[in-house]
Every structure is written in structure tokens, then in C-alpha cells.
Amino acid sequence: xxxxxxKVTLLSIISAMAVSMTACKPTEAPMEVKLPETTxxxxxxxxxxxETSVAETTPEETTAPMEERVEKVYVxxxxxxxxxxxxxxxxxxxxxxxxxxxxxxxxKRASEDSWYLTKYDENGTAISQDLAKFVGEDSRYILKRxxxxxxxxxxxxxxxxxxxxxxxxxxxxxxxxxxxMLIDYYDNKKIRTIKNIENxxxxxxxxxxxxxxxxxRYCYDTEGVFTHYFEYDNDENGKAVRATKYSxxxxxxxxTLFKYDSKGNQTEEKTYTPxxxxxxx
Length: 281
Prior knowledge:
Elements: E1 69-75, E2 78-84, E3 90-96, E4 103-109, E5 114-120, E6 126-135, E7 138-147, E8 153-159, E9 165-171, E10 177-185, E11 191-198, E12 203-208, E13 214-220, E14 226-234, E15 240-246, E16 252-260, E17 266-272, E18 278-279
Antiparallel strand pairs: 1-2, 2-3, 3-4, 4-5, 5-6, 6-7, 7-8, 8-9, 9-10, 10-11, 11-12, 12-13, 13-14, 14-15, 15-16, 16-17, 17-18
């Protein structure tokens, strides 16, 4: 039962993945650019934009823009190379590390108001890639990707037009997807459902009310067969205090009680049989 509330904590990953796109921020016109693609499998179900299809390439293999003019400048203490097309529109910027030789990050135009930002380590290996849409001085993410030291995709996050996360794919270092989370929202931007897909294609669907409290979770095996479900009782703070597990025909299998400290941190989790006997770990 330790995994009953595990998946929701994946939402906290987004705050740790923020990458600044303000230095040398591009402000000029469009260019069609091919998005780097990946070897993941489950992520194929989450494609929301045509330009973000999934296949077998890496960030270094993006289609090079047809530049006509290169301008070398210093901006905020950084050495930049700006590339312009035949219409003198900015289409790409290379920003170098302090040594003036190694690439630190690269901007490439994706559409009239959106850009890719790829960041590199000291060995020239891509460590992250973002696709962001700029509206005036503001920006919002459409796609965020993080890579391991070998250049394999390990985390991919996608967002809707409101900037809300709609999918999160997490992969092993070998690039094989092992967990995918798909999210749907109410009109008030509260989460409606979360679908968690495991690498073996078993999955669960969590349902929330419009106040953001989780109410139930339905579980399916690798063949899509409904196997069991949970119903949750929540306290005044929206924390689950009880999760009751049922068979598909509604027979109680067990229940789990949760306790929290004054800061809302879970301090206890105990599971019992239907007649109240403690199930030891």
C-alpha cells in the first residue's frame, strides 16, 4: 500500500525543472525548425503539438536553419552569435560559455512566437531542451525535456495552452520509459483526473473533485482489465486520512489509515483487513 499516494508527488518535479529563457531573449521573426525527437514509447500517447512528434533522434540532430547572415555580439557579459535568414529575421542564437569556445545554450525559432532552448554541459552534450511561447515580456512552456550524461531523454513534460502540465514521462537511464502521467483539468484549472501508465502498460486513473481532493483510484492490468479500486476519505485540509481498497464487484479488500503532523507531512500509514486486523509490512 506504500504506493497509494506515490504518483501525485511527481507533480513537484516541475518546480525543480525550471530553466531561464530571459538572457539574450529572442524577439524577432519565424523559422520552421524540426523538434528533437526521442526513443521513448509511452510518450507517443501524449503528443499535443504536431511539431513534437516522437522518433529516434537527439537534440544535436535538429535541422540546421538556413542562415544568410551571422552577427557576433556581447550581451550581458555573454558572447552570442546571432543567425539571420534571407529576410534578415533572427532564427537562431548560439550563446557561449566563459571560455568563448564551448556552447552553453542554443535558441532556435520554432514558430512566429515560440523558441526552442537547448542547454549543453562542458562536453557539448545536451542536458535539457525547452519549447516556450513568448507573449510580450512573458513566456510559458509548451515542452520541457531533460537528458542524462549520455544524452538519453529521462524526463519529458508537456503543457497545454494555459501553461498547465498535461503529461510527465520519466525514463530509466537507458531511455526506456517506465512511467507516464497524463493530466486532465476542470474549467477552474483544478485537476479532474490523473492517468498513471507503467512501463508494462498497466495503469490507474485517479479522480478528483472540483476542490482538488482525490476521491477514487481505479486500477487496470496490462490487458486493460479492471482489477480493483480505492475510495478516499479526506480531512478538512484535503489530505487523505483513509484509502479503502475494493474488488471490481465492490467487496472490501483492505483499508489504509494515514496520519499527518502539524505541517501536513505524513507521519504514519497502516493497513488493515476488513475486520480491523493490522497487516504487517
